[in-house]
Amino acid sequence: MKRLVIIALSLFVFSCEKYSEGLNVDPNNFTDAPGESIIGQANLTWVLITEGEASRMAGIFSDQYTGFSNQFINYNVYDVKSSDFDGIWNNNYAGGIAQTRIVQEKAIAAGNNRLLGVAQIVEAVMGADLAALFGDVPFSQSALPVDFPDPAFDDQLAVFEAAQNLLSLGIENVGNAKVSDLYGSPIFVENNATWAEVAHTLKARYYLITKNYAAARDEAKLGISGNQRSLLSFHSDISGQENLYYQFGIEQRGGYLTATRSHLRKLINLSDISVDRLLYTPGEEARTAHYFSGNELNYNEGGYFAKDASYPIVDWYENQLILAEAEYRLGNEEGAKAAFNAVRRELAVKYNADFPEISIGGNTLLRVILEEKYITMVGSPQVYSDLRRTNNLVGVPVKSSTAPNIPQRFLYPEVEINTNKSFPGVIGLYIPTKVNE
Amino acid sequence: MNYKLLLSFLILPFYHLYGQTQITGTVKGEGDDFGLPGVTVQLQGTQTGTQTDAEGKYKIMASKGQSLVFSFIGMERKELLVGNQSVIDVLLMEQANQLNEVVVLTALGLERKKDDDLSSSTLIDAAAIKRSGESGVIQGLSGKTSGLTIVRNSGDPGAGAYIQIRGQNTISGSSSPLIILDGVPISNSSSGGGVDGVVGQSRLNDINPDDIANVTVLKGAAAAAVWGTGAANGVIVIQTKRGNPRGKKVTVDFTNMTSFDVINREFERQDKFGQGNPLLHETGRARDAYTYIWNPTSRLSWGDRIADRIGGDDDVRVGNKRFEAADGNVYFPILTKNSTNTYLDSNRDQVFQTGFTWNKSVSLNFNTNSGSTFMSFSNWDQKGILKANSDYTRTTARLNNETKLTDKIKIRVNSSVTHSTSNRIQQGSNLNGFYLGYLRTPADFDNRDYIGTYYDNDNVATQNAHRSYIGNDRNLTYLGEGAPFYPNPGWVVNQQENPSELHRFLFNPEFNWNIMKGISFTARYGFDYYNQTRDSWFPVNSSGDLFEGSYGRSETTERNTSVNAFLNGTHLINSDLNFSWITGVQFEDGFYTSLGGNSTIFTNPFVGDLRTFGNAEAANETPSLTRLRQRKSGVYAVLNSEFKNQFYFELTGRYELPSTLTKPVFYPSASLGWVFTEQFNSNLVTFGKVRASYGEVGIEPISYANQTSYAAFDRGSSWGDALSAAVYGNPFGRSSNSGNPGLTPERVREYEVGTDVRFFNDKVSLGVTYYDRKTDKALLAVDLAPSTGFTSVWDNAAVITNKGLEVDMGFRIAKFKDIEWRIDANFSTNKNMVESLSGVKSVTLNGFTGTSSRVVEGEPFAALWGGKWARDDRGNIVLNANGFPEVAEEEGVIGDPNPKWKGGLGSNISWKGLSLSFQFETFQGNDIWAGTESILKYFGVHPETANEFFTETDMRTVDGRIVAAGTLVRGNVTDFGAGNVLLDSEWYTGVGGGFGTVSEPFIVDGSWTKLREVTLAYDLPQNLISKAKLSRASLSLSGRNLFIWSPLQYVDPEVNLTGSSKGRGLEYFTNPGTGSYIISLKLGI
What we know:
The complex is a heterodimer of chains A (437) and B (1085).
Chain A: H1 2-20, H2 35-51, H3 53-61, E1 66-67, H4 72-76, H5 86-110, H6 113-134, H7 156-174, H8 195-209, H9 213-222, E2 231-233, H10 244-252, E3 257-258, H11 263-268, H12 284-291, E4 292-293, E5 296-297, E6 311-314, H13 316-329, H14 333-351, H15 362-376, H16 381-389, H17 414-419
Antiparallel strand pairs in A: 1-3, 2-6, 4-5
Helix pairs in contact in A: 2-3, 2-5, 2-6, 5-6, 6-7, 6-8, 7-8, 8-9, 8-13, 9-13, 13-14, 13-15
Chain B: H1 2-17, E1 21-29, E2 40-43, E3 49-51, E4 57-62, E5 67-71, E6 78-81, E7 90-92, E8 103-105, E9 111-113, E10 122-125, H2 126-131, E11 148-152, E12 161-165, E13 178-181, E14 184-186, E15 212-218, H3 221-224, E16 235-240, E17 250-263, E18 276-278, H4 280-283, E19 292-294, E20 315-316, E21 322-325, E22 330-331, E23 334-336, H5 344-351, E24 355-368, E25 371-383, E26 391-404, E27 409-423, H6 434-440, E28 451-455, E29 461-466, H7 489-494, E30 499-516, E31 519-538, E32 550-572, E33 577-600, E34 621-643, E35 647-658, E36 665-675, E37 685-699, E38 710-711, E39 715-716, E40 722-723, E41 733-734, E42 737-738, E43 746-759, E44 764-783, E45 792-816, E46 819-836, E47 842-847, E48 851-856, E49 863-866, E50 892-895, E51 901-911, E52 914-924, E53 927-930, H8 931-939, E54 948-950, E55 955-956, E56 962-963, E57 968-970, E58 972-975, E59 980-983, H9 985-988, E60 1003-1005, E61 1008-1019, H10 1022-1025, E62 1032-1045, E63 1066-1067, E64 1074-1084
Parallel strand pairs in B: 1-7, 13-16, 42-45, 53-63
Antiparallel strand pairs in B: 1-4, 2-3, 2-5, 5-6, 8-9, 10-15, 11-12, 13-14, 15-16, 17-24, 17-64, 18-19, 20-23, 21-22, 21-28, 24-25, 25-26, 26-27, 27-30, 28-29, 30-31, 31-32, 32-33, 33-34, 34-35, 35-36, 36-37, 37-43, 38-41, 39-40, 43-44, 44-45, 45-46, 46-51, 47-48, 48-49, 49-50, 51-52, 52-61, 53-60, ...
């Protein structure tokens, strides 16, 4: 009897196991993907940091835009809190660096050097852009959850150095491949951009932020060599593929973000004489119309923020204006003017209007270059880096009556504060990051 | 007492000496034409007695002057003096509340006397549920017992409710109790629960409340332990009606209920100022701060003083550009706003109506020698308080049958089908939401013409243009030019559709076999299947990102099957000791699939009534598929014993293996009880029991949390702008949520002690229970530092405790002159604490980036979280140079949505056929985020923002202006600690309004007391209705949720934006709650 019970019981236990075995396999989700696919997620994240919330926030701090209604009113007077930066941070790490690390692993395993190179370039951007906006950030220990569940915060300068190294490696690995042929399409506009040129411009960008003007100049000379070789995000009128500014301003959050009384609008609006350009530019009339529509951003067809308007991620203008400033800083005013005037000629063509070239030099030249960059690179977080690096040489007003300055950094996000035991402590909005100390 | 006893001993023998005669008769039950078998007939004061036979007949020898006592379980005792008659026919009345006969249902659905039960389980009578007139069973339970929280999240027709027994136990698992219907588990999944969309339903609403016989709430872990995994939130055991095995062969009952629903609380809105803004917003000049202008492109009601306008018609530019409304009204671009009309009332009447519900139900009972049958049919038809597209209809049919095959074998089948349809209105943080558009509309904007044709300057027409108050520089949306940012509520209610349709089938056969004396075998099969389709339809020109049209549809199928077989034995060892045991096996299988799709941006706008896919470019046609499969097998055993009729003991064990785990788990429980009143006889304490128990139950990890997934993730911000991977080559990325293959079940351990006592001949009853439960290894997506590359990982990381006290009291105030009065009261308090989150500061349950309901270490569950004012070391608010508070750089806990205590008070007074009952319920000490109110301050719609006065001193504003004394301003004065400051438009549209970074000021006391229901019922007298060949007829009038007392203004404090999800205490443009007036007529044949 006893034996019978044992047999019956063990039979039952066995059948129980059989009954529920093998069912906990997800029928809804994939559990792996090739590196060639994953790189696309990192590229989308790159577009997002350049064109999304970080761009809007930087644009408000830079007074290119005005936070006009709802929650954005508070952003306009720098009333921001740590959780306002959660999304930017999450995207760059979980959507960016985490993915590029996987791609690199898979690319190495498969011996796909060019994929490896693209992943290195994208990863460098993720890290360096975070360092530029937040200061010290985790990078060397980031996206290694098993070894470093609480990644240490690297010194801001160390992150830029690591990014430069990655970019150098990336340049070696990608060869002369065009972006459109190699993992760039359909996220980036199909043009003649090459990964190597883009990476050199990026190196120039981050050398500029760290005030290494000589290296910035050298890299810019190897950087994006023509307007048709710029890296632009691709947008169309298909749902989910529209310009992010259009999505935000028309589809999702109408009225939040405008250009009402913004410094940029006053600067280029010829009929507003409260703020004028250093370099008189009749062509600003056309540019104002391209950028803005009344107080609103120009979301209309053909506008800068139109539904299907591609958006610069790293472009020739940036490369040229970095070159111009670097040359100036290195005492080569002629070189600076040449680079700057090339931009003006291109703008004259683009807007079919008068963008006079510059002949004078001295400090005014620097201010003119920075002002041009402030205008041309509307909505780029790079403008915000320039303002902080140059101690606001462009002269953007402080919009809050209680703020000592324009914000000097993005606040460390709530999500990281809450979870990372290595978090070094909250740093106030008006404390400059190390590169700008 | 003793004296009397003695006397009877002395006298009795003498009686016997006198001539005894044989008395015969028939005993019948009330309303019953057949004899009642088994009635005890006793000569009072003697041991002599007999029982009635199968026909209800009896024979007994008695003498004149003696009394016969007739008693039967469930019937009132009757004493009759023997006179000269030899035939005494007796009619026994049904006994209303015989407390020592109250039964509760155990977790396996078996009946057990409450007095023998060792848990805190409580039984809720069907009559009380029915009286509430609610469409759902669950809603009818609210306030009726301690420890049970039922919250109506919305007044929308067919809306679900949030159910919680004791406190919240789990973060990732379901918060709903296990629902056992006629012995088998059924689905109570609820849909919805985000910050937008439509109100969620709950599947418990599929059951017709008229079919319910009773409901037992098993609150403790020990009582629920046989269900092991899944029972951590308690168990609600529902029994449906069975055919009456005795009595009249056929009875028919008919119920007709009509209900009129009204909005129970409304927002107050200012009508002094029109649409527009301070001129300051345009010029940036301080001197323009108190010059208000009418501005049709502004979303705000910070515009001009309406009374200052010159009156009459607006100056318009008559030309091609115009809006022609469907009713022929023509609107031109406004040049000067002259009209002083305000439209709060007409805008209200545009959308609100008195809701109407008509419920018809008929049930049939019939019995034969071998069994009994219950059949019912019902039809619920409800139109909500919004004029269109808000309704709920439900048709149910039930057939329950019990058949005796032989003396030993019985078969029972419970089955029901439900068909329901509903249509719901978009709500919440939603550019197509009803309340959002309705409440933000300025007082001077007439919403009534919401649809028509827009003509541009070239007279080109746009059909079905959507006219709403808010536009921008380019679009005059009040002419229907372009899509609006915020919808016209008329559009939301009339043009958008969110229909759903459900078919559900429940089938539970049961087989009972009395194997031998004391041992029986029961096998049950449960089959619960439903299929639901849900559509969402946004026509072209809807608000926000759906202005080019969107159609979505999902088809969901859920199937839960279970097999449960057990042996049940009872053994009488001797007169002092008996024990019983149950041992069984159980298999459960759950299957869920949802297949759906979405078409956005219609290529053909001429859609008419067609709702289908294919009307969009390929990239905008998106299919979706979600599947879930879970199984569970278990064995269990229960051992009960009783010693000397006063000591009780129970042991339960369950061993099971769910498919989400690789190793089996064991759940034990033990209970002890002592009926101390067996030790002494007292008139004061008629019954008394103390009990103690310990139990363990669990929650299994969610399915598929063992793996990290890869998907084509969209990349975007919390504002809604996003790059859709699907249109960018569909790249796959690794999820930011890490899977974890080493998960174990969450384990809930609970100690419970309590007592059940009755005093004064059962007139007063009291049940008190204290519990202490702890959830260990609660599973959550633990936030990881995003810099690790993952934002979260599934882990058994949290410890949650709940401690509480539950008190139930009943007073059966003695009958006098046919008046019967009872009062029931309950009180519960639960202290909930998230003891540990393994170092994670907080986990969001639901809500917004700004304000959310979270699990925070060291705080009660679902704590409200958001932006706070900065504080110094001593806790004082830090002020800036302008004398205004500074915003803290970090967010934190700002409120606790859990009530400190809650209670219910119900009473029923009846006199002859007339009865009056009422039920109060209260929640005290819970916080709520008054999100809507905060936003209405931003918009200048809130009455607080319409205050105008002359400043008496110079004052600063939040943006640093100094306002000179004697300035006429719109706003209020306050002192944050550095002297008076002026709260004006810049304060309210900035940090002092709902879009500000600080949500702390909008956390308000959400305590409430509601008169849940008050009912006046009249049972028509028998002599009247018998002429109409009826055996029962009653008419009742009820009011439900008509009176609310709460410090929270303007909204029904029960509504919860995030529905029945675990996120609590959030209110944000949630569709309003309702109150009802109900008339019911019940007839019985």
